[in-house]
Amino acid sequence: MFDLIKKTLLAGVGAAVVTKEKVQDALDDYVRQGKLKADDARIIAEKIAERGRREFEEMSAQASARAAELFNRHDSAVTARLAALEARVAALEVAANAAANPPPAPTRNGEP
């Protein structure tokens, strides 16, 4: 499960890197065409990168919180099942001990 979450987050990081490269390429094209100054392109790229980092951190925190919630819920269910199984085993042990060590059978005169 952790591997799946890790791969998903890494895929998001990879997509962010590709997106950043595409944004940088587009801004470089605008600079070459004279539609944008190099300083303005740098500022825009920094703003886009910062926004992407913030969104990724928020998404990562939400995913972590959700994963923790799911694991805790699963852990509670496992704990409850384990307690029920332990109670059943204890009852079976008592029954097995009683069957293995039966009380002595009474005799007619009450003597063993």
Describe it:
With 112 residues, the chain is mainly alpha-helical. The chain has 2 helices and no strands. The protein has one domain (2-98). Helices cover 85% and strands 0% of the residues. The longest helix is centred in the middle third of the chain and has 63 residues, at 38-100.
Order of helices and strands: HH
Biggest sheet record: none
Task: Indicate the radius of gyration in whole angstroms.
Answer: 34 Å
Q: Calculate the mean pLDDT score and round it.
A: 79
Q: Tally the structural domains.
A: 1
Distance between the termini: 64 Å
Strand content bin: under 5%
The helix/strand class is mainly alpha
Total count of helical runs of at least 4 residues: 2
Low-pLDDT ranges:
none
Overall geometry: rod-shaped
Name the helicity range: over 70%
Gist of the model:
The protein has about 110 residues and is an all-alpha fold. It has helices at about 1-35, 40-100.
Outline the secondary-structure elements.
Blueprint: H1 2-33, H2 38-100
Helix pairs in contact: 1-2
Descriptive labels:
112 residues; mainly alpha
